[in-house]
Amino acid sequence: MIIDAHGHVHDPVGLHLDALDAAGVDRAVLFPTRPHPERAGDLAALRQEFAVLDGALGGQGGSREGFAGALDEVSAAVSAHPDRFVGFGSVPLELPDQEIERAVAEDVVGRGLRGIGELTPAPGRAGRLEPVLRAAADHGGLPVVVHGFAPTTADDLRTLAALSRRHPGVPLVVSQLGGLHWMEAVELVRDTPGMYLELSTAFLVIAVRLAVREIPERTLFGSDAPYGDPVVARAMVERATVPGEVRDRVLGGTAAELFRPAR
């Protein structure tokens, strides 16, 4: 089974299904999103969507009410296409700890979603994942996915590794290969058994090749669609690997174990 470990809700959802079909991808992990860049028809419209994205990455809009619409979109897409999508739910990180734990219980577990993410802590605020990891542990070790590209800093990645060591029963996935800090991300994930590295938005084939070589059982194919494309992301993985067990794990075997999609 080929599983794209990083996708966001598309409007309309058919655009996403078409992209997965073109890539020969069986299923995708689906995260909620407030920006919708696939709606943009020109540069001005795309700037508007990216302004929403910049706000999200900066920690703005941190209320459960602000997340509700995006969670509804995920739930609707998973309900309509349960054979193609594995739904995740996000929670606002700047809420008080008890409210974060309640949000995980009600907005993720209560909706029947399979994990938590994609979380986007503001730069220097990766420590706010700790109450999320505690809640994930309370619900059987739900996987947690955190944004890895800019504005995530190298210090944030080190904080995530420290948190993972404190909560070893919760799989913690760093997405986008850690962005510009990919070498440090590879080292941290390699040396932290509870961490995984998702490979979307990689800009160097050599980075993907090195990541897979260093952590073959904890690297995950992902596209970050609609920002990336499943066809291109799969081609990157296949150029960086050889046919066989390791490639199969990266393209879906590890994700199937980690995210437990329904059969």
What do we call the CATH topology? TIM Barrel
Structural class assignment: alpha/beta
CATH class equals Alpha Beta
Please give the order of strands in the largest beta sheet: 1-2-3-4-5-6-7-8
Q: Helicity level, as a percent range? A: 40-55%
Strand fraction equals 5-15%
- Average pLDDT score: 94
The rough form would be described as globular
Task: Give the SSE string.
Answer: EHEHHEHEHEHEHEHEHH
Number of domains: 1
Which regions have little confidence, pLDDT < 50, spanning 5+ residues? none
Q: What is the alpha-carbon Rg in Å?
A: 17 Å
Number of helices: 10
What distance lies between the first and last C-alpha atoms, to the nearest angstrom? 11 Å
CATH superfamily: Metal-dependent hydrolases
Give the biggest sheet: 8 strands, parallel
Number of strands: 8
So, CATH architecture? Alpha-Beta Barrel
What's the short story on this structure?
Keywords: Lyase. This is Amidohydrolase family protein. The chain is of the alpha/beta class.
Fold and architecture overview:
This protein is of the alpha/beta class. It has one domain: TIM Barrel. It has ten helices and eight strands. It has helices spanning 13-23, 43-57, 64-80, 97-108, 130-138, 154-166, 182-190, 205-214, 230-240, 245-259; strands spanning 3-8, 27-31, 85-89, 115-119, 144-146, 172-174, 195-198, 219-220. The chain has an eight-stranded parallel beta sheet with strand order 1-2-3-4-5-6-7-8, sandwiched between helices. Helix 1 (13-23) links the parallel strand 1 and strand 2. Helix 1 (13-23) packs parallel to helix 9, helix 6 (154-166) packs parallel to helix 7 (182-190) and helix 7 (182-190) runs parallel beside helix 8. The protein starts with a strand and ends with a helix.
